[in-house]
Write a structure and sequence with these properties.
2 domains, four-stranded antiparallel beta sheet, about 240 residues, 8 helices
Amino acid sequence: MTKDWFASWFDSPYYHLLYKNRDEEEAEKFILTLVKHLELEANTKVLDLACGKGRHAKTLHKAGLDVLGVDLSPNSIASASEHTTEGLKFAVHDMRETITDQKFKTVFNLFTSFGYFDDNSENLRMLESIHNMLEENGLLVIDFMNANKVIENLVEEEVKIVEQVHFNISRNYDGNHIFKTISFGAEGRNQKHTERVQAIKFNDFESLLSLSKFEILRTFGDFDLNDFSEETSDRLIIIAQKK
């Protein structure tokens, strides 16, 4: 059986190499601003869903929360687990599945970790799972790209060189998904991976969340929590409450 693209690519060392220079300071500032806005009390139990190597989970813990970070990638969780401590745990987990023995006050799904699938049935399955894992009136925070702006400003071709590896990157939009194809030579062979993310816009999220019994409380358009604009915002950040 062929692995989902995200299961194989996110577990590759070259995925982590390509994205190694992400802005850690910006990410930490965003999380701390978000936690303050949500007024989460110390030791509140939260879930970082699709946590990668745990950079957001570590900051959530630093903010005083009791954090479980989960991700489908065993390599990412192995790296994140080096930071395990009281109130900060990690586990391999598919975000479409319910963690049946725990409940959370807030679930965070950050850095465009949504819409990896072929159709909305999988998105609904994921949201139903989140709904099941939340406490009564619990919150869901989704940090997604602003698909409108990404499509309008799509960089079709670029080359990134990281530690002597030349990553040739191409992008296209087919009306449903945004594709990012990454080709490079490594280990004596040519390799190619394609990231495929659904171009989910605000009205799409409204429909998905309503069907999944969530109410949208607030939207933001950037990591400083300024108002969302479909035309100009870099991000679409949604805070929704379990109904």
